[in-house]
Design goal:
The chain is α+β, with helices and mostly antiparallel strands. It has eight helices and nine strands. Helix 3 crosses helix 4 and helix 3 crosses helix 8.
Length: 290
């Protein structure tokens, strides 16, 4: 299969104004993400996903794996449940048109290898292949160079003396609160994203319960663990041995209500049951309310 390059796209952000009075006042009551986070624990059953991954690898996507499926499924969910792609800035609710995903990677799988964060920006109608190529380009680019763009930014900040660095970060927070941080910085910042994901499976441990960040715009943090097996009672009364991974989601409850979150989770789980729908763009991309 001929590899394609992901096209360059720009993020689009706008204020959500037609929300209820309650939704408008909540960000002033719960002022930060740390105090507004809810946790959900779930399982992702892998029987159909494993077959899908094998199929994609046979088609030439040699490093296609569960990470690509989870990211692509979340992107697809954003296309149908756009409110989960909102964020709070300056106590006001904003929504994104694009989906920006952050994840931590290592150059090598050992305790001494440094880690960094890479980000991809994709359209909500992205397919699994779109996610695969966008992510692999970022990862391969990082492993081929000494430092990523984020590493270089962090290195520059490290030259600032401690007390002055503290005030520098406060100033950046202030600009971020007002929405005045330049895109050149938010494009590098791992804290400015739609979705942050980390895999504990490669470490052989269960998913962590990760906090959200008060700096930036990330409303959702996802962690998934190592593969496990269990005997599962099926709807027809039979007992089947199933492979699954545990997954945790940390959500900023201010961006939408619990009913909406539950609807988004059900839609996400339906994709895991039929991952082949990620081969094609959605028939329609639903826009968030004005």
């Amino acid at each position: 299969m001929k590899e394609k390059k992901p096209k360059k796209i720009k993020d689009k952000i706008r204020r959500v104004r037609s929300i209820s009075p309650m939704a408008r006042i909540v960000p002033y009551i719960m002022e930060n993400r740390i105090g507004s986070q809810n946790f959900i624990f779930d399982k992702i059953y892998l029987s159909k996903i494993d077959k899908y991954i094998k199929q994609k690898q046979e088609q030439g996507l040699k490093s296609f794996n569960l990470m690509h499926v989870i990211i692509a499924a979340y992107v697809r969910t954003c296309s149908q449940r756009p409110a989960i792609n909102r964020f709070i800035r300056g106590q006001k609710i904003y929504t994104r048109r694009m989906v920006e995903v952050s994840l931590t990677i290592k150059k090598e799988m050992n305790i001494d290898s440094p880690d960094t964060v890479v980000k991809i920006l994709v359209e909500p109608n992205a397919t699994a292949e779109d996610v695969y190529y966008a992510l692999n380009e970022k990862i391969e680019g990082y492993r081929e160079v000494k430092n990523s763009s984020f590493d270089k930014l962090a290195k520059v900040l490290n030259f600032i003396p401690g007390l002055l660095l503290r005030w520098t970060v406060r100033f950046l927070r202030f600009l971020d609160y007002l929405g005045l941080l330049p895109r050149s910085l938010t494009a590098l910042s791992p804290f400015h994203c739609s979705f942050f994901i980390t895999s504990m499976g490669s470490l052989g441990i269960p998913p962590i319960v990760h906090h959200l960040y008060d700096f930036g715009s990330c409303p959702t943090f996802c962690s998934f663990g190592a593969k496990q097996r269990e005997l599962k009672l099926e709807a027809d009364g039979s007992i089947q041995r199933q492979t699954y991974v545990e997954v945790s989601y940390n959500l900023d409850e201010r961006i939408c209500d619990g009913y909406y979150f539950a609807s988004a989770l059900r839609y996400l789980k339906s994709i895991y049951k039929s991952p082949e729908i990620l081969d094609n763009p959605p028939e329609v991309v639903i826009e968030d309310i004005r």
